[in-house]
Amino acid sequence: MSEEPQRSTTNDTESQEPDDNVPTPERQAELRAAYEKNVVEGKAPYARVEIRSLGELQWVMQERGWSAMSLTLPRTTSRPT
After folding, report:
1. I want to staple 43 with a disulfide (CB 3.0 to 4.6 A). Which of 9, 14, 20, 38 is the partner?
2. Where are the beta strands (DSSP E) in the chain?
3. In this structure, are residues 49 and 34 in contact, taking their beta carbons and an 8 Å threshold?
């Protein structure tokens, strides 16, 4: 029998908690610049901007003074990839 380590059968991202860390100052500057550029161009504030984590989303919401209802999807709900 081989000594090869066993591999997990679950997706690692499914078992991890969401990243709710505040974005770095550099990333905050990128998000602010994208916001300003899009607003000047008459686009949606974060059009074509990838929000990379829960922490970024929370930061954006706070930065803009936006609010939202909490929506928790059941674990069986598939999400777009």
Report:
1. 38
2. none
3. yes
